[in-house]
Every structure is written in structure tokens, then in C-alpha cells.
## 1
Amino acid sequence: MMKRAYIIALVMISQLGFAQNVKFGKISKEELQEKEYVDDKAANAAILYSDRVTYYALSTNGTQLVTEVHKRIKIYNKDGFKYATQQISLFKTRNDKENVSKLKAYTYNLEGDKIVETKLEKDQIFHNEISYNFKGVSFTMPNLHEGSVIEFKYTITSPFIWNIDEFKFQSDIPIKQLVAELRTPKDFDFKATQKGFLSFYSRPGNAYNDMKSVIYELNNIPALKEESYVDNMNNYRAGVMFELVSIIIPGVVHRTYAQTWSDVAKTIGSSEDYKKELDKTNSFDDELDGLLGEGGSQVEKMKRIFKYVKDNITWNGIDGKYFFNGIRKTLKEKKGNVGDINLTLVAMLRYAGIKANPVVISTKDNIIPMFPTVDRLNYVVAYARIDDEVYFLDATDEFSDINILPIKDYNWRGVYIDNPNSRWDLIDLKQPKKAVDQYMLNASLNPDGSIEGNLKTRCSNHSALKFRESYKDKDLETFVADREGALDNIEISEYNASNTDSYEGLVSESFNFYYENGASVIANDVFINPFMFFKLEENPFKSEERKFPIDFGAPFQNRYLINIKIPDGYQLKSQPEPVSMAIPKGIGKFLYKPKVTGNMIQLMVNFEINDAIIGPDNYLFLKEFFNQMIIKESEQIVLTKV
Amino acid sequence: MLKKMLVWMCLVIHFNGISQDVSYSSFTIPPELTKNANAVVRLNSTKVSINGQRDMSIVINRVVTVLNENGNRVIQAGSGYDKYVKIKKIEAIVYDKSGEEIKKFKKKDFIDHSAVDGGTLYSDSRVLFMGYTPVSYPYTVAFSCEVSSPNTAAIPSWKAISNYYVGVEKDVFHVQDIAGLGLTKKEKNLSALGDQIKLTDSNNSLHYEVEHIKALKPEDLSPSFSSIMPKVLFATEKFHYNGVDGVAKNWQEYGDWINQKLLKGRDEVSDETRIEIEALVAGVEGSIEKAKLIYNYVQENLRYISVQVGIGGIQPISAIEVDRLKYGDCKGLTNYTQALLKIAGVKSYYSIVEAGKTIVDFEDDFPTLAQGNHIILCIPDEAKNRNVWVDCTSQIHPFGFIGDFTDDRKVLVIKEGASEIVKTSKYKDNINHQISNAMIELKEDSSINSKLVITSKGIQYDNKFYIENESDKDIKEYYKEHWGYVNNLDISDYSFDNDLENVVFTEKLNVSATNYASKIGDRMLFVINTFNRNKFVPDRYRNRKLPFKIQRGYLDEDSFEIKIPDGYEVEAIPESVSLTNKYGEYSLEFQKSENVIFYKRKLLIKNGSYPKEEYKEYRLFRKSVVNNDNLKLVLKKTI
């Protein structure tokens, strides 16, 4: 899964050539006269200058983490006005809170030949208590016009000194010039993790007073633009995350944090939760013993435990790699975070004598951690090994199964934490098996062009999971109506779906249908598309180019076997050629095989995508593959009246 | 937008002192109430006591059994509050399916959160709500809450059926006007409840009670939920809102109250702006011409920002303040524009509207603060004896064009001593007109090359004029999505003309696509309608329950000239199609001259409301439109 790392071609960013110091309030006429952003004429606004310095400061309240922000933004047109509204989010707890101070902001306009500045007044700065943990300070700039330049600066003082916010280097508008600096005590060693698809480097800043500094200077950063079929855009936003790896205070303390993945695993493994809590089996009740007492193989026991945890503990929607409640409370309250559920699962598997360990991961909605990190990992799943077979389990999701984890879990590799055997390592997750849909259609064509028949479908793995989720989400009548709409407005009767409540095995559905406009009758000829309502109408890939990988979630295969009976008195005039095509490297395959024998049309279609994630270098192949498939799928068989 | 505390008050449900013989077990729900239901309201009791002009208490007891995940939102264990509205008591108890208590929430356990949405810069509205993760279904929540509010102008309404997929075992609503402020009511759609409703109307008190309502399911094209569901609005003649007293028996008096208490004296602007406006309209004749210049001035120089300050979010920021900041919300911008118009000697009226794509009218005879969420400006055009409506929050709409956000609905126009309910402009079916003309050349390699001109007016203008401001990439993507059924579409050239004066948007495009036709031996097959295929077929219902409504009609007229490749001929020209019924018209005509096929299409959809029995017929009409839009033509090689 580290694939992603090389899938993204890194784009070099200019980092040279500005020594100019941008001073607050020194706005040039050129900036005000600027009509568009040279490198991205579609930009509605641009950040002309962004400066951020984060450093440690000693004050009477102890050590504080201070961040000074200075931004200058050019507004090109009305669609860019929204960048004149800013919200600063401040974190707080019961005892401590972040504060913002020294907020100054001006709007600059060119009136005739004169630069006119308008100050943001204090009464136009709004303080919103958003929730228990967040406060927002918001403002919007006065006297704003097309062409205005706005500039603001403020200082955030934070008592949460170990949480350095991500340095974000990319916005949805271009940034002309960016400077970011982190100053830390010499004895604190922070590891910087870069993310995104821009390539940049840092340089050391001036060191003084036992402080050291790292500076990032970037020029002409392109805007980050959304693309479809991307799991999480933030994974591709350029930036740096900082994480403490060691503190060396001579003669006093020496603590070393994670530097390699093995360190990461050890660090997590040596936490109380993984060392002690995982073996607290005294709260396991008779019910569990009963389940295990039924005997059977270890695989059967694993399945029973998995089901027991799924049935008895509900996920509260919160991620986490550590316990929130702990085993006892989780079992008592019957709910918990991801850690509570999957670590309890590990504990129960171990209790049953199965070799089981936690595997810590980062989900798709989190980040892709390309470099060792403890803090950025947000999730844990269970791992079991029985007779050399490896199993991954996540009991938080209603329809997930053993080795069929929720799609968000398949983001990256996993940190394997095997305390009993002192093995701490990075491992690959078992990739999702192909989700196979099989369609069996038997129908007959009527002389008026309508088609009636029966369809039987079977879905496996992630396709079954998806089916179950959408089936559960709606009442049957709505579900069937939606199905009718999705299948070119056929009319469905005798609808039946089975095995939808379980999370194991295949889902199957069966129904009769009436397809009014199944074929076109033109003069003496009947034009029938044998692929009927299955044909793909639109190419999902319309853009000319692609920057980010395409995420299909899991590999999949759709197989169709279609039989259509032709009415008496018609004979074949022409039929489409069979075709077989593939995307290089086995990424995708398409097979289309029509056959007309006697009064029977038979069509076999097979369509498969074998990689869950496809790199942008293969985008054009994929696009053309879909295109050729659409062309083939729209071809007709011509019958003529004898 | 006006702040609507009322919404939250309705959500707030009560529980208080009264002994309840409500069962918390999910086993005792009558089975017919769980059919199609995500949740069943076991009891919803609201008791409103109006103790004085500035003193109202609302007590809510609400017991909801949630049957599945989708039913969680029905619980509504929460209440809004701010510096005027106070939560006296709030509590919730969660029971498992057999009625055993699992968890209890006291006031301090409720989550306190700002009620602002992302788009609002500031608002002091807040909300307390219960944060609970269910561990299994069904489960039951008994919620009780007591709110004290000075805002007698915002008496909660009674809505027995809160949403689709909700069954109701019992709902009781009681309002008592202890202070004798002159309680009145407006009942809507109560007949839908049939015999199930019991009501008593005694001295200064109103009581509604309903039992046993089955869950409803949403259906395509049904009128808006709130317009067909039973509902009772309440008001008192004397009232109070966030620090301001009022008296009103009718809209005229109500309008006077708004005018005097909230608007008056807020129309000063700076001298510079005054001089600028005077210069702008100097020498211009006619109030509408002047208004147009001023509207453009506002669009050029100001922008919309939502800030809910002032008297509980219902008073505009003063014009002088807006002048300084160059931004405002709908109230502030409308009041400011009105102030500028006044300088130019143009009369205009601040008007309150319920905005949104769904048309919602003000009640003709029932003034309350609960109606309306947006402000527009009414400018009388005396020369033509009509009203011109403008939305001062839009930076792009042409003067006098309000689009589908505030069209065709009754609004309150505030005029000193003469406030009244007036209907805004309606965009009738054939005004929402799109004309497409295309020359399409089909080539032997199955590709097409075409030149298109599309003009759009009315609501169809509103639906697309914004694209001219999009980036090149987004414009091309818009068309690729718009004609998604044409595979491999390429827009080689486009230009737009946005005629603000006549409100007409013209698109000129060069479009090509490969593999448009499919080849079968010596034939070519393609769908004749390349650029305006209608794909809309409403869902089929075995047993339709709700009436249906076509809120806005439209007219599409297309004429395509298709040049076929040399060496091919048309095998059979399709017959023309003509469908006319009360819902609209559809026609297709085909003509052939040498190697060109002329395709003429017309689709008129009329607005209107119809009973559920006719739904099937309308659906069939739409289905035959879709089928006919997919008509294929066969070409045959001649050599």
C-alpha cells in the first residue's frame, strides 16, 4: 500500500529568489493594480504573502507556544470576496485555553492614484463560543472591492505546548510567497513530516538563546483543486507536521520518542493500554466462556468472538488507538471508541488462546503517514494468526467481516504491536478481496420492443457490504423504486433480497422486470441492445488530466450472463463483434461476447478492475478503457421480420 | 435572515409534573404505527403559558421510541437559547427496549454549542442538546424541558407530524393566554387528521390533541411537507420580541410596528455617499431608471455577510454602519438600498419574504413574526402600474430579477400606515424559455461536429447564467456533465452573452464528440436528439399517497439540423409525435432534404397542483417524453 508514495509525482516548487522582506502595511500600487494571478488566471483571489512563526516563549504562566501569523491577500473579483472573511479557531479545555491577541487588519484600495486604507474596527471582531472545546474569532474586512488587498496579523498563544498544528502550505487559492518558521529549544528534537505532492525542503534559521530554528520558504504555490474519486484531499495538501521525538536535558531526563516505525510500534506498545489493560480478562463474563466452551476449531472460536463483540459493543463514532473506557467499562456500557472495541477484541482472542495482536493504522479520512509518527495514527484493528493464516478484524462496523474491513481502513500499512513476542514492526494489511457481482438474466423480447424477464444477482465481499448498507438505509419500497430508476426505469415485481442482515457470505437478489423501451422497432427492424439497462451511460472520468490517484476502494469484478428469447418470425440481421480488452499491467479487463443461436440471444460480459487504487500515470488508459467500454456496451443487435 | 428561535422552541419538548401514563417499553407500540417508521413519538406534549406581554413559559414533555438509526434525529432532545430565552430545566432519560432506564442526562450533561451555521459571522444563538450514542434499537428517550421567554411574538406552532417516517401515538398542545393578550390562531390542513383530532377552544386557552397517526413516506414531486401537514399558528394581539413591545391586529398594524420600532431612523448615510448618489442619478429621468443605477451601485460596492446583531437579529444594521463597512446582511443591505433610493427620490418598500426554492406564502390574515426569513425590496413602477422586486444580497442578479429564491409568493410589504400582503413576480411556464439551435454534422467515422446557440430566459436563465464567471476548466466540466450522455464530448469553443437589461443568457458553443453513432455493418445508428434529452422520470409508486405539484413550468424549443455523411441515406424517417395534456405539451417533427435532417422538438411543462390519482398519468407522460427523446435514426450506406 506504500504504492501511493510513488504514485504521486512530486512537483518541484521554486524556493529561491526572494530576499525581500514583506512588511506589514507596506502595500505597493502594483499589488493593488494587479488584475489576475499570472500563473493561474482562474484564481478569484491569491495569498500574496503568508508568514507564520511558531516558537516557545517563557512567560509568567510557564511555557507557552506562540504562533504569529501575517497574511496578505489579493481579491481579484467578487467570487474572491469570501477570502476576506476569516475565522481563527481556538482550542480550549476546562482549565486552559488558546488566546488570540494583537489582531490587526486593513483593507487597501486604490482610489484614483491614492492608496486608501480602511482599518478593521474592534467592534467588527466577533467572538463566538462555538462549543465546549472551541472558540472562534471571526471577522470580515470592511470596504472591500474587486481589486482590494487585505492584510492581517495576529498572535495565538497556546498552553498546549506539545500540539504544534500542522503547517499548511497550500490553500484553494494560489500562494505567491510563503515563509514558515518553527523555533524550538535546542534540547527538544522535533521530527518534521512532509505531506502533499509538492516537493520542498527546509533550511536552518538563526539559532540563539539555546533555541534552534527551521524555516520553509516557498514561492508560487499552486492552488489545491478538488478532483473526484479522491479519498481525502487533505492527504495531498502540501504541509509539514511536527512531532516530538526526543528531549535531552543533560543530567536530568533523556526521553526518546519514535524515530523509526519500529520505535513507533514500541512506543505505542509500551503504553499502559497495550502493556497491561490488554490482559485484564477478569471482566470477561460467563457468556464469553460459554461461547468458547462450545469447542470447535480456533477459526470457529475467532468467528464467534468477532460476532460477540459486534453484537454486544456499539461504536460511539470516535476514532482512537488507545482505550477510552477500558475493557471493563466498555463491556458494562456496551459501547466505546475504536480502541475500546478492537482492543477488547484482541484481549478476547488472546483469552481464547488465539495468537492475536493490535495493528495500529491511519484511516483514509486521516492522513497517509509516509514517515514514522505516533500521534498521527488514529485507529487500531485486530490481527490474528491461526495455522499460518492471517486475519484482520474490525468490529466497529455493522457489516464488516473478517478480512473485509471498512474501506476507510485500507489507507496504508499497519504498525504491528506484538508485545508477547517483542515484535514491533510495520506490516502490510491483507488487501481486500475482489468484490464480485454476478448477474444472471433470462428474458424474452416482445414484438412491440418491450422486454420482460427475471434477474438474479449475487454480490460478494465489499460489494455485499455496500449492498447491505444501502438496503438497510431504506424501506423496501423506496429501495425497489431506486433500483427501478437506476436500471433505466424498468418495472420490478416479485423483488426478493436475501442474507442482507448478516455480515457474512453473499447477498443475493432476484426480481422480475418489465422493460418497456427495451428495443427500438424501426420499420421492419428491431434494434436491441443486449446489454440492456446494465450499460454504462456516462464516463465517470471526464477531465483531460489527473493529478491524484483514483480510489475505487476495493478491486471489483462484474460478470453478466444474459439470455434473451427472440419472438417467432424474426431473424438476425447483424450483431456486434465480440471484444476483449485490457489496461496494461492487468489493472482492468473487459470482455464482451455476444452469440445468437436459433431464437436465443446470449451475451457474456466481464468487467474487472484489479487495483483498488490507480495512479494518475494510468489515468488516460483508464479513461480510454471506460470510453471503449461505453461504445461497446451501446452496440445493438439488429433483427428483421421475416 | 431573520432569526427564528421558534424553530428551536418547537424542537424543545417537555416533561413536567403531570403524571404520565406513557409506556417506555417499545413493545407496547401499536404495530401499525411502526410501519414505515424510523421512530414513534409516544407522547409529545407542549404547554405554553402566556403570563404577561413579556413572559411566556413553554413546558415540553416528549417521549420518542427510536426504531433504527435514521430515527435518531426525531428525538430532538435539545433547546435553543440566547440572552433573552432561558432554559429553566432540561432533562432526558434513556430507556432500553423493555423500558428499563439506561442513562439519565441532567442539565450539566447536555452539550452546549453555538447555533451559528458556517456562513454566519456572528450570532449569539446557542443550543443545548443531548449527546447520546445508542447501543441498540429500539430505545426510548423521555425528554423534558422548561423554557422561559419574553418573546410572546414567537409562540411555538403546533405541528403534530414533525416529519416523514415518524409515527405518532399521542400529541397534545395547550396554549393558555393567562395575561389576556388576545390569543388568536390559524389552523392549516387540520382536515388531514380527520376524526383523530380533539380540540377545545375555551376562554383564553386552546387545546389540541391527536392520537394514532401512521408514518408517512416521502414521494417524488409531492408538495413541500410543511404545506400539506396539519399545523396551527398562534399569535397574540399584544406581544413582545427581544426587548421590543408591540400591538397588532392585522398586517397593517404589524407593519407599522416593524417600521416604527425596527426601521425608523436607520436610513442616514455619510455625506460622501449622499453626494455620490446625487451625482449618479443627476439628469436621469424616471424612478425605475434611477433605481437600476442605484441597485448596480450597491452590487458593485457592497457585499452580503451574515451578522446577527441588533435586536435579536430582526433589526437591520443602520445604513450609516453599512456605509462604513461596505457589507451587511439581507436586512442591512435592503435598508441601505432603500436609504439610497430615498436620496434619489425613489420610493421603495422593505419587504419580508419566506425565501427558498419552495414557494411559501405569508398568511393573508394572520400576522406573526414566525413568517419570513429574508428581506427584499419592492419598488413600485407607477408608470407601468407594477412592482419591481430586487434582492439586494445578490451580487450578480440583474435588476428586477429575483429568480426562484423569492418568486411567486405572498410577502409582507412595509409601508407606513399601509403595510400589506403582496405577491412577488411569477415566472410563468413559457417565460422560463430555452431555445436551442444546432447544426450538427455527423461524419462517417461516427463522430459529430456541431455549432450550437442556446438562449435562456426566466428561471432557466437563473439556472445557468452564473457559469459565465466560472473558470475555463469548470465551464468545460459543466458541459461534460450537462451532456453526460454524449460520450467523449469536447467543447472546442464557447462564448456567453449575458443581457442584463432583458434578462437573456446566450451560450454559443462548438461541440464535438467521437463515436456518437454506432456502426452496425453498413448501417449507422444514433439518437437524433443530441443536445436536449430529458432524463426525468419520477419514481413509480404502487400506491401513491400524496398529491403532486409542479412548482414551476418551463418551455424548451429545440431545432437541430443534422447533416448526414455522404454515401448514406436515412432508412426510415420517424413519425412525428404530438402529446398534449393538462400537464404540458410535447412534440417532435422530422423533415428531410437531401442529406440534412431537420429535427424540431418542443417540451412545455405547466405548473400546477394535482391529486394523487393523476400521478400515474403524469409519470407516463414524462416517461414517453424520455422514450421519445431517445428515438434513434438508422442510416444505410448507399454505395
## 2
Amino acid sequence: MADLSNSADPTATAELAETPPGRMSWSRLSEHPSLLIGGGIVILMILIAIFAPLLAPHDPYAQDITNRAVPPVWFEAGSWEHVLGTDQLGRDYLSRLIYGARVSLLIGFAAVSIASVIGTTLGLLGGYFGGRVDMVVTFLTTIRLSLPIILVALAVVAVFGGSITIVVVVLGLLKWDRFAVVVRATSSQVSRMEYVQSAKAAGASNFYILTREVLPNLTPQLIVIATIEIASAILMEAALSFLGLGVQPPTPSWGLMISEAKSYMFFSFWLISIPGIALATLVFAINLAGDGLRDLVSPDGRG
Amino acid sequence: MPIYLAKRFGLAVLVAFCVSILAFALLRLQGNAAGALAGEGASAEDLAIIVETYGLDRPLIVQYASWLGDVLRGDFGTSYFFKSPVSDLIFDKIGNTVILAIMSLTIALAISIPLGVLAAVFSGSWIDRLCSLVSLLGQALPSFFLALCLVMLFAIKWRMLPASGADSWRHFILPAATLGYYITPPFMRLVRAGMIDALSNDYVRTARAKGLPAHRVILKHALRNALVPVVGLVTVQLGLLIGGSVVIESIFALDGLGYLAYQAIGYRDFPVLQAVVLLLSVVYVVLTLLSDIVNAWLDPRLRVS
Amino acid sequence: MEPLLQVRDLKVDFKLRTNTLHAVRGMSFEVREGETLCIVGESGCGKSMTSLALMDLLPRAATRSVGAMRFGEVDLTDRRAVRRVRGNEMAMIFQEPMTALNPAFPIGDQMTEAYIHHTGATGSAARARAVEMLTEVGIASPEKRLGQYPHQLSGGLRQRVMIAMALMTSPKLLIADEPTTALDVTIQAQILRLLRDLQHRLGIAIVFITHDLGLVSRIADRIVVMYAGARVEEGSAAEIFGSPRHPYTQALIDCIPQPGKSERGAPLGTIPGVVPSLVGDVRGCAFRSRCPVAQPVCADAVPLRAEGGHLWACIHGAKKDETERAPA
């Protein structure tokens, strides 16, 4: 028992004793409303993206010159035919928005998958082997951090041309730094633990130890970083597409939709605010879920 | 301390060197530099002249060495599009970018330090919750969307501020507000965490036991220690701001480095793009080096030993 | 004579999610001018919480209730009044000299700021006072020390600085919360000697909080023994060491290694059993689970017995207990 009289907050110890550690249940989940709300919205968005063809009322690519820039239903000139109106080419905005969720989520998840593999591998190597390997990993990370990420992404896209694949690859190759930093720190701690040491002593191969003993202990942190990075990748895709150097028309991407609506902004600001709000909601929900996950993983708020 | 600084400096130089290789390689990746230079529909003779003039037929390593040599002498080559020395272009534009970065930082710090302190002092209260909500929202709003909203309100609807250009300080307000709001959340989180940590320290209890008024305890004893990591973040964010302002500068047509880079991408003006990427990376490296030095100086424990 | 500090029925609670932790359960004691009162008890017995409660320095999670708490004329339950005397007439030093000083500011700044705040003195007057106080606590070349940072001083030196800092405003009462626990034995002895010496010269009262009964014998005028958040025995040093009445006090005294008497290499004495949880209602004598002479009635309310100024909270305490043990 810690010295009650000297610890800053004796309730902390007492509260810890009240809840058995490591138990994951609905009751514990309900103590993290941010995870519930954020996660709920994210899952909803994912479902929308998956079932986009079933949900979209119109073909997102079908242009209708006679029905251009019809305002959403809550405006006087709006109609239920196009709930969120139509864009400057007369395409149904709700359908484009629904398909846009696909692009955002696809790019976010795919880019972060690449980034997490790169970052985790580097971090594991550096943290586990230490010494020179670690120096190289740290050095690579330093270089990566010193590159202005948006600008490099823009330049690469400018060289290779914009497409979903290029955006995914570029973001995947650029966004691994946080994975590397956190995994390196944690795995160097974990690899000093007794059970890893004993696995080593028992003659287990490095690969076995890394994948069976070290990596599983990193999973909670990895999930937390992944959520943060997915949110950030989605924002970056939007920014690239907004600048015309990401996803190319006519593919519906929320960033591109805002970009295309820029010149109509004075008369039809909803063309900008609808995808803008969609983007903000998705990113907000992911970050909220990430915050909740972090609290769940490290209740003391560290890490 | 001198050894530490020397090591740190050596690392910075090495990083800058590697970045220069990347910057060089980046723009050779597309292979056909001459084609890009000549534009579409150039004749074979034109291409040959360009290859000759720019020495594009030499081995890559030679090209790199000569490019690096030029760069070290401050010669970034000639812009394909603007037809003027790249260094002149950069020299013209960098001022605007620096002003924008400093204004944004000032705005971010002016918001995040008081709010972070409040959130820490009243941690768990509605103030704290509100602050974390605002910071989550800040992180979720795409910067270009926020920029367009501000333009819509302040420039178009109320006609209070100009929407684009860089002619007067008023042109900087909207872009700086956008960028400032965008980088506020990380500062706020750091100040809050630092303050919560500092406030739980024994020296804060000592300060209270001495009978100092609460504001002195919080603003002097706790804040002074909580701000040490903020200095590090300031330099890092300054680096990111200078690089990350591409989007914002383009929206507001604010004539800085970011806008220059954006234009260079549009015109496939590779010497300019190369120079800006390299410059921003080096600025970042220098700033992180500075932040380490400043941190060492701020922490008396490191200063002496 | 009116006591300098008077505390009656002090309680400190921590609200937990489902229950309440009673860290201090009705402490009462007095301190007279110029005397040293030692509050002794194991870690977690609530002695530090008691001292923090006096200064209104409890952690935010704590709630305090008190029958009466007076310092001279000042009502210590009035938070504004506390702010006037805190760090002024009533000063405090802490266990960890390593962390109790702010690493970011030089010694001189930290010593003078509260003095300037309380007295309105000028900076140079305050520095002169700081030099005087550093000399008082036996620090050589005090002017030089003023410009130094805490990390440049050793632990013993830092605790001297803490004491000098506490004495800046000529307090009438110094609360010392385990001031020597973090120091090694020789430094510990020096600091104790310094405190005793200062007390004689300046006539300050000291509340000395410690878990180390061995230390207490060297400085205490009177002693309060705490167990599980409550006072179990109080008396003069002679009474406590000469004729301890509470079984807990007796057990504590038995644990002090005595030169010449304790066998070399023999294990240090410990009291078997564990301190009961203070979460929820605590009934009867908290020590009964570890007490060698516990009776079924110990589960009921404990009587407070008195013999002059010697108080103890136990059903036992008749003279026959005394004869059973060898005189200390």
C-alpha cells in the first residue's frame, strides 16, 4: 500500500483497487462515452461507404444540365428529388456525398495500413535491437520529420499525376513516423521485460519473439495511433484533392467537391458547407474514438 | 553541454544532407526533365538544346554534386517558368511566409496558453471539457474549409477584410486566423498536460505553503515549468507552418513560399519546387536544433551540467 | 496559557466512486508556544494529511471537517484568514527537499518572493533578510547561494534552504513534515540539531511529523501517536517513552533498535498484521486486529482515558501492563 499521507491523491490508488484491471466489458465501455459516440459515427460512416450503391438515390456521375445547383430541400427552391441539392453540373449532391465517404475512408485506411507496416517494422527493429539499428531508425525518422509532408506529397503527385492509388502510396510512405516513434519506445521497454528475456534465453528466434511476444503488447498503442493517423490522412487527401492534386474529377471526393464549388461559393455556400461538415464530422468522430481508446488503453492518460 | 550541442549540430548537418539528396531525387523521378522543361510539343532539337544547357546528359551523381555545389553558394538555378533566379524568387516571397507563420503562432499561443491553464486548473470541470471539445473540433475542421468559411463571412458577407493578396497587414488576418486556429489544439493539450503535471509537483505545494496568492503559484511556479516543452513545440510548429501553409497561401493567394510552390507545381517548375522543398526541410532542421538549444537553456539543470 | 495552535475533531475524507475513505478520523491536539509536538505514526496513518489540513493545502479530492481549529487569534477554518498566516506566522517544510524547491528559479528568488508578498519589503531588504537566514541555518557564503539553482545544492543543503525560507517571516509555528526522511543519517542528525537550536534561539513552536519514533525521542516535548487516522495516545515525551499505555505505542517502542540492547544482526522488530482499510465506516478500535491484548469489547466505541496530560484511547492502561515490560 502506498503511503497515503504523502501521495498526492490517495483516491487514485483506492479507485484502482475498486475496478479489476484489464477487464473489458460493456460496463467499462459505457464509461467512455467519447468512444461510444465517436465509434458509433465511424461505424455508421463505414456502413454508408460500403453500401453506397444501395443508399445513393442517384448515380453520382450523372450530369443534368437542366438541374444545375439546385439547393437542398430546406431551401425554398429545394425539392425532395435532390435532398442535398445538385452541384454545378447537376449531379445529385447526396449521392456524391455518399460515394465521397468511400474515397475518404478507403484512402484513410489504405494509406495508414501502409504507414503502419513501415512504421511498426522500423520501430520494432530499432527498439528491439537497439544500437546501430536503432541509430539508423532514429535517423530515418528524423529525416522523414524534416520533410514538409504536404509539399512533398504535392510534388510527388505533380510528378506522377493524381489518382487514388498515388495518394494512398504517397501518404502511406510519408505518415509512418508516429508509428515508428511510439513502437520504438514501447518495444525497447517490452524487450527488456522478463518474459521476453526468458524467451531469448530459451533460444527463440528474433522473428518469433518480435511477432509473438513484442508485437501483441504493442497492439493497443498501435490502434490508438492508427485512428489519429487515419483522421489526419483523410484530411490530407481532402487538402490534396482540394488543391487539384489528389483524387481527379469526376470521382467524388469531399475535398474535390469543395474545390469544385469554390467559384459558386457566393451564391451556393451549401455546396461547400455540406462536404465540409461531412469531412469535419468524420474526422471529429475518428478523433473522438481515438481519445476514448487512449483512455481505455491507459486510464491514467499517459501514453 | 558543448559535446551535446556539437553532436546535435552534426546530426542536423547530416539530416540536411540526406534531405538534399531526397529533394534532388524527388524531381528526377519523373525521368524526363528535359521534356518537362520544354513543355508539350517541343521538337527534338529543342530537347537536345535543353539537355545540353542544363547538363541533363551527365551521370546523376555529377548532376547532384554540381547542383549541391550551386545550392551551397546560394544558387538554386533558374526558374523554368518565371525565368528568373530561384534564389531571388524565394528571397521575395519568404518574408510573407514568415510573417504569416509568426502571426499564426501568436494567435495560437494567445488562445492555447490561457485555455490550457484554465483547463488544467479546473481539470475535470466543464471548462476543461469545453476546451477539449474545442480542440477536437479544431483538429477535425479541414483548414481549407475553415478558410473558405472565414472568407465567406468576413470578406464576402461583411466586407471587413480582403479575401486574397498580401498587400497590407489586413490581408494576413484571415490566413493567420485559419492557421492559428488549426495549430491551437496541440498547444492547448501540451499546456494543459504540462500544467497538470506541474501543479502536482511538490514545489507548487511549497509555493502555496509560503502563502503566495493562487495566481502567483499558477502563473509563476507552475506555468514556468509547463512552458518548457511548449518552446519545443513552437519551433516544430513554426517549421510545419512554413511548410503547411501551402494550402492556406494558395486559397488566399498570399504571395509566400507556399503559394510559390503551388504555382511551381502547376507550371512543373522543378527548380523552384526543389528549392522550396529543400529550404523548408532545412528550416525545419534548423528550428529543431534551435529548440534543443533553447530547451537546454531554459532548463537550468541542463544549462549548468 | 492559551495554546498557540488548537485543533479539535479534525476529519479528512476522500470521496471515492462508491464509498468514502476516512484518512483522518477526528484528530485533536494542541501546541503551546515554543514547544515541539511530534506526531508519530506509520505511513498512511493520516499524519501528513493532518498537517496539510492545518495549512489548507489538502489535495482537491479531499474534504475537511473540523470542530475547531485556531492559531492564536486566527480561525483556521476561515480560508481567507489562513491565507494571511500561511507562509507568514505559520510556515511549513516538507519531506522531499529535492522536489520541494522549484527547479526553474534561483534560491534567492524563491526565498524572497513570499517575504516580499507578506511584508511588502523591497527586493534588496528581502535579499539581506535571506542572507541573514541562510547564515542562521549555517550555510556558508550565503550571497553566492542566492544566485544558485536548487539542483546545484545537495539534499541537506536544500533542506537548510527550505528551513531558512520558512523562517524568513519569523513564524511562530513551523510545521515540519518528515523533514529528514529523505536525507542520510549524518545529515539527518545535523538538521535535527539545527531545528532544536533554532527553536531555542527563536522560540518557535514546531509540529514535527515523522514515522520514526527514534527521532522523536531526541526532539519532542510532547508526542501524539496516530494510528489509522486517529490519535491513540498523547503525552509528554517522558510519559510516552516511560509509561506507554496504548498497545500500539508499546509495539512501536519495541521496534526501535537500541544500541547495546538489541542483538547485533537481529531482525528489526515489526508489528504483525496490516493496517485496516479506512474505506467505509470504521468501528471500534482500529488496532484491535493486530493487538495482542484485544478483547471483544474493542469492537465497540473506544474510551479515551486520561491521567493528567497523558491521554490514550484504549480499554487497557491499568498499571499492571507496565510491570510486564522492562523499563525502557
